[in-house]
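[audit] Reproducing an earlier prediction to check determinism. Same input, same settings, fresh worker. If the tokens differ from the archived copy the diff job will pick it up downstream; this log only records the rerun itself.
[audit] input (87 residues):
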Amino acid sequence: MSRGELLALPASIDVETAGRALGLGRTTAYALTKSGEFPCAVIRAGRSYRVVTQDLLQLLHITPENSDGARSSHPAPSDENSSVHQR
């Protein structure tokens, strides 16, 4: 899944979609869910399972501010500290 697709997901998603985001097949995703080993928060709703999208995004290190999935060790300079001044 692309970053844009991940950021556009609703608050909770089905296990199959979460598994696809993690590179897991359907069978593996459901097996991990049923064993309690899925790496994200899973909610059981009747006979269905839902994965909390926010947990999935955190696992993948994807936020709206940092949608590339990489952690930057250097924060972006603020306008005040920037060496480039606009006139």
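[audit] rerun output stored. Observation attached for the diff report: The longest strand covers residues 48-52.
[audit] end
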